[in-house]
Structure formats: structure tokens, C-alpha cells
Amino acid sequence: MGRAEKARAVVLSSRPLGEADRIVRLFTRELGRVDAVVKGVRKTTSRWGGRLEPFNVCDLVLHPGRSLYTVTQAQLVDVFLRLRADREGLTAAAIVCEAAAGLTPDHEPEERVFALLRNTLRELDNGISGRAVQSPLVLGALLKLLYEAGYLPVLDHCAACGSGGRALGFSAARGGLVCGDCVGEAVPITPEAIEALADALSRPLAELRGEPASDAIGEALRDVHQLYAYHTGSRLRALRIAGGG
Ligand SMILES: [Zn+2]
Predict the structure, then answer these.
(1) Residue 71 needs a FRET pair 20 to 30 A away by CA distance; which of 10, 142, 158, 189 works?
(2) Taking all residues of the chain, what is their mean pLDDT, rounded to a whole number?
(3) Could you tell me if 38 and 105 lie in one domain?
(4) Residue-wise pLDDT tens digits, 174-190
(5) pTM over 0.90, yes/no
(6) Residue 45 banded pLDDT, cuts 50, 70, 90
(7) CATH classification of the domain holding 41
(8) DSSP for 219-233?
(9) Spacing, Cα 167 to ligand 1 middle (Å)
């Protein structure tokens, strides 16, 4: 057994373990993405309260075990109460946290990803308009996560031939927009969706939050989801359930 570690964590997700315990998937500032057991958390007399619910930010003490950490102390840092009461906000948080879990390797500290997740949850707590699957904030957060993972889509020229011709398609395999000559098996893309991608990439999340949801953003989000699926080999369950592809 190694020594206990202190870590500040966003709780990404949680699943039951045995009768009384849970395994939480965490993105920590100090250790990157790790899984940890929370003992007794499902008992009605649990001392943990709601502290280790998904989308909370906590200061934790983690004891390393053979394959998993065990949480021995938890102090709440941020709880996003307005987000908790907003169905679309919760869907948005679930999509972004699932993508973060899928795009980050186990146990590799990445302070920027931690900051990005916390910032996204804060903005979601301020409220989004319209559906999560058409939200500019969700699109922006996913693009920034893809950037951190090294999978930023190519938007300023054809990802296949390098020409500056007008983009007519989006290809996950090529890694971005493709021109008319290269469109082949790529998914056709509208000029509005291209603009939504460029916008979501270049603007801060706080600004994106205030922008209205739209069909073009929904289309851009489906393309980004294809890119995510291409690189991770899996699709975002939270996005699929919400009807966003
Ligand atoms: Zn081309």
C-alpha cells in the first residue's frame, strides 16, 4: 500500500459496488483520471451525504489499493445547485463529463482538463437556453477537450488535401472539414455548422453559454461526436440518450 494522496476532484460518474459501496470516476487536478471506492455510501446512515455525487467538486483523501483508490475523506468545494435542478443542464454536464472520462488516460495529471471541467460546470450552473444537444457551451467544451487530447478538428483548410477550397463535408477519419474534391464518404456539412464549429472553438465558454441553441449547433455536435467516436472507439451514452446522435 502506498501513501495517502490529497486531491481536488470533479466527480465524473458513479456506479454501485456490492451492497453498500460505490465506485466513483474522478478527474483530479493532482492525479488525473482515477477510479475510487466509497465505502458505505449507499447506507441510509452514510456519513458521506451527497458529497460524492456526480458533478460535485471535492477535496479528497485517497488511499491507494491494488487496483483502485479508496476515498477516506471528502470535503465539498463546489456543489452546483441550479444545475442539479435543470434537466438540460444535467444532460449537458453528463455529456461533458463522459467525454472527459473517454478522452483522458488513467492516472495522467492534466491541470487544464481539471480547470476546463470545473469552469464548464460553473457555466452550466448559470443556466443554458434550449436543449443540451444543441448547446453552444456543450460544443465548446467538447472541442476544448478534444484539443487537450490532441484531436482538434482541422477547420481552416481541407483535412485531406490541404487546399483552401470551400468545405463541403466533415470527415472523422480525416480529422476535420474536407473540400468538394475530397468529400467522398464524408458527411455533408452546412455553412452554418462550419460557423458554429469555428465559433465554439475560438470563444470563451462564458460567452458561448449566452448564445442560443440551434439546429446548426446540433449538426456540429454530431460531427464532433463522430470525431470522438473515431478516436475513442466508443460513443457518448449521455448524448445518445438525449437524442443528439
Ligand atoms: Zn480536399
Answers:
(1) 142
(2) 95
(3) no
(4) 999 999 999 998 999 99
(5) yes
(6) confident
(7) 2.40.50.140
(8) HHHHHHHHHHHHHHS
(9) 8
For residue 225, what pLDDT band results from cuts at 50, 70 and 90? very high
How far away, in angstroms, is 153 Cα from ligand 1 center?
14
Same domain, 50 and 90: no
Phi, psi (deg, nearest 5) at residue 146: -65, -40
In angstroms, what is the span from residue 176 Cα to ligand 1's centroid? 11
pLDDT band for 46, please (50, 70, 90 cuts). confident
Tell me how far the alpha carbon of residue 14 lies from the centroid of ligand 1, in angstroms: 43
CA of 200 to the centre of ligand 1 (A): 23
pLDDT-derived band at 1 (thresholds 50, 70, 90) equals low
155 alpha carbon to ligand 1 midpoint, in Å?
Answer: 12
> What cell numbers appear for 50 in the block?
451527497
Phi, psi of 134 (to 5 degrees): -130, 20
Distance of CA 156 from the midpoint of ligand 1 (Å): 12
Provide the domain count of the chain. 2
How many whole angstroms from 66 Cα to the centroid of ligand 1?
50
Scanning the structure block, which residue is given the C-alpha cell 462564458? 206
Please give the distance, rounded to the nearest whole angstrom, from the Cα atom of residue 221 to the centre of ligand 1.
22
Last residue of a domain, one of 58, 79, 100: 79
Report CA Rg, the chain.
19
Domain boundary among 79, 108, 133: 79
Determine the distance separating the centroid of ligand 1 and the alpha carbon of 165, expressed in angstroms.
Answer: 7
How many Cβ atoms are within 10 Å of 189's Cβ, its own excluded?
23
pLDDT tens for 96-117 read 999 999 999 999 989 999 999 9
Residue 28, strand partner residues: 9, 32
CATH label of the domain that carries residue 179? 1.20.1440.120
Q: The domain containing residue 89 runs over which residues?
A: 82-241
* 109 in the same domain as 9: no
Same domain, 110 and 61: no
